[in-house]
């Protein structure tokens, strides 16, 4: 009976992870549609504000994950600066110019970029296979960009993909900060802090944008989905899974994000890729695989067991 119960709990944890990746993958589509109806900074501000309100409701449980120590303000401020501030500035603008599918594929490079940053900043040694994987993935992203044709979903794919790459660089800075902070702060608390800081940071940018006379029910629903379901729901599922599964198992599931995003973009937005782009996508995944194979035993060096992945979409 005990074995069966453990198996059921483990299965639920895996299903929670799968659903979390499903939600995060869909967030690119929701954001892509929303920025077509509203100015990007308005969308991000509304998302952050809705998320902050949601975290206020569960604050009695969040405050137990707070253990401030002198000097932590630098890491907390740096984390919030990288994400959500810089991250969403780049990503919201990126989705004005590139397709959700291409933007989602670029997120596959996050582990590689993090490893490269660790090499230069933390002086961690890297194997030649990791550098090869990085080169292959970069070549794949470049190929995916140059072989695509500008259309309604990607009016300027080159610019959009470059902005999304800058968003991933911001996510790298966030990841390195979180590595230190999750020793004393829960993942939920750090996510809540991001929402509160994001609401304040994006308020003046939203006020400076052109507001429509009315916001459609459809767009309002997307904002609620981004602020509530994606921000709170996906992180809740992710953290539930970490209660029963190793962090390395959870990290492996993040490789599904680009695939989910691509499937959503094709099904809901009608995006179509050329054969050259499909080959380029394969190169991105091969590059990610090459870079991760050697680091399997050292993955925990870059992330705490409770470290939340960067907020995507």
Automatic annotation (TrEMBL):
GO terms for cellular component: plasma membrane. Keywords: Cell membrane, Membrane, Transmembrane, Transmembrane helix. The keyword Kinase does not apply. It is a multi-pass membrane protein. It comes from the Bacteria. It is found in: Cell membrane. This is EamA domain-containing protein. SUPFAM superfamilies: Multidrug resistance efflux transporter EmrE. It comes from Saccharospirillum salsuginis. The keyword Cytoplasm does not apply. The chain crosses the membrane at residues 15-35, 41-61, 73-90, 102-121, 128-146, 158-178, 185-207, 219-238, 250-269, 275-291. Residues 13-145, 159-290 form the EamA domain.
């Amino acid at each position: 009976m005990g074995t069966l119960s453990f198996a059921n709990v483990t299965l639920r944890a895996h299903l929670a992870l799968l659903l979390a990746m499903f939600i995060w993958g869909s967030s690119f589509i929701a954001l892509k549609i929303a920025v077509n109806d509203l100015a990007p900074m308005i969308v991000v501000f509304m998302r952050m504000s809705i998320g902050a309100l949601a975290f206020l409701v569960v604050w009695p449980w969040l405050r137990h994950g707070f253990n401030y120590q002198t000097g932590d303000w630098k890491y907390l401020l740096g984390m919030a600066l990288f994400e959500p501030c810089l991250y969403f500035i780049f990503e919201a603008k990126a989705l004005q110019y590139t397709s959700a599918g291409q933007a989602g594929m670029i997120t596959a490079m996050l582990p590689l970029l993090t490893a490269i940053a660790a090499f230069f900043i933390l002086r961690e040694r890297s194997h030649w296979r990791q550098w090869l994987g990085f080169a292959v993935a970069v070549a794949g992203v470049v190929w995916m960009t140059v072989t695509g044709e500008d259309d309604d979903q990607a009016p300027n794919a080159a610019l959009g993909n470059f902005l999304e790459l800058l968003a991933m660089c911001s996510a790298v800075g966030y990841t390195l900060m979180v590595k230190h902070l999750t020793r004393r702060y829960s993942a939920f608390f750090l996510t809540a802090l991001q929402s509160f800081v994001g609401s304040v940071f994006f308020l003046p940018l939203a006020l400076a944008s052109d507001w429509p006379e009315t916001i459609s029910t459809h767009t309002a629903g997307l904002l609620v989905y981004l602020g509530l379901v994606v921000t709170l729901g996906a992180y809740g599922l992710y953290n539930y899974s970490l209660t029963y599964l190793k962090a390395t198992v959870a990290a492996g599931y993040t490789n599904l994000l680009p695939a989910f995003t691509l499937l959503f973009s094709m099904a809901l937005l009608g995006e179509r890729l050329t054969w050259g782009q499909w080959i380029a996508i394969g190169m991105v995944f091969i590059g990610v695989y090459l870079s991760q194979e050697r680091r399997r035993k050292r993955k925990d060096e870059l992330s705490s067991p409770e470290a939340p992945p960067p907020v995507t979409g």
